[in-house]
Amino acid sequence: MFSKDIGIDLGTANTLVYLRGKGIIMREPSVVAVDTKTDEVRSVGHEAKAVIGRTPGSIMAVRPLKDGVIADFDITANMLARFIKKVCGNSMFFRPRVVICIPSGVTEVERRAVKEAALKAGARQVSVIEEPMAAAIGAGLPISEPSGSMVVDIGGGTSEVAVISLGGIVAARSVRVGGDEFDQAIIAYIKRKYNLLIGERTAEQIKIEIGSAYELEEEKEMEIKGRNLVDGLPKNITVHSEEIRDALAESLQKVVDAIKETLERTPPELSADIIDHGIMLTGGGALLRGLDELVHRETGIDVHVAETPLDCVAAGTGAVLDHIDLLGDVLDDNSTHF
Ligand SMILES: Nc1ncnc2c1ncn2[C@@H]1O[C@H](COP(=O)(O)OP(=O)(O)OP(=O)(O)O)[C@@H](O)[C@H]1O
Fold this sequence. Notes:
Blueprint: E1 6-10, E2 14-19, E3 23-29, E4 32-35, E5 40-44, H1 46-49, E6 59-62, E7 65-66, E8 69-70, H2 73-88, E9 97-102, H3 108-120, E10 125-130, H4 131-138, E11 149-154, E12 159-165, E13 168-175, H5 179-194, E14 196-197, H6 200-210, E15 221-228, E16 234-240, H7 241-264, H8 268-277, E17 279-282, H9 291-299, E18 303-305, H10 312-322, H11 324-327, E19 336-337
Parallel strand pairs: 1-9, 9-10, 11-17, 17-18
Antiparallel strand pairs: 1-2, 2-3, 4-5, 4-6, 7-8, 10-19, 11-12, 12-13, 14-15, 15-16
Helix pairs in contact: 2-3, 4-10, 5-6, 5-7
The structure holds adenosine-5'-triphosphate (ATP).
């Protein structure tokens, strides 16, 4: 009754925390600012993201998870601990039970490492849930029924495609392509075409403001600032949505290919269900304009975008906490008790 059970979506781009009975209570970028002289963590989340690309020599903004894997374990553990403290307060009197969702590409060693980090941060019991399963539950798909559902979760570091039936993953594919690669593709394009160097934050802004996967009814344009590689001076240019679509095409094709490969490996009865129910897109990448249309054109199947794509995974971990009796089976069975 007093326990603060929490669900955590530990993503490469964002970390979200769900508090049982309350809903999502924290959304922060998975970024840590570290003082390289003392190895001290200065700040995490929004505060740390604001300094990316703007840090003085001794302070470095790090993203401890990259491409769907934990690039720096100690910093990930530190970040997780700070986030858990933030939502549970400093008093660890009522230590939380934690359901944590991690990218499905992580190794067994990393999975154990994340559990350990959560325990070190004060959790009483830690269970892990696969990302596409959490996304499917969060998007409201009928995962427990004997009917096939397809979910495509496009995050920062990875895109996960899965077909789920009877509470289990029947076919799945994970590719290390997501919002980060889209941003890098934009940086490379602008550099090649305009000799202009832009930062990751600008590239993400361009993607969100004018990026698209399919022709737009009304094409858009945006003025951007960067550093001219010819004379080294700051420069403004105007970019158009058609150009950004070109820049993104190759990366998007990798996501489409992963969907097609998963469909090819799906048992025929479940394929029939997917044709009836359509494909569900979740994760921040699902917000890219026209992505549903592109996937529809390429597969011939109806595509739906989840209502709040960025929240699906966290909402899914929360639903498991709220209905542990019904959904507990989707957790890995060897939860770690302290
Ligand atoms: N409106 C938008 N259009 C396109 N991309 C967006 C939009 N809003 C957010 N994104 C992108 O979504 C990504 C973050 O999505 P999300 O929070 O689902 O990832 P994550 O769960 O942290 O990553 P992963 O699943 O790889 O661990 C970022 O790359 C961000 O730029």
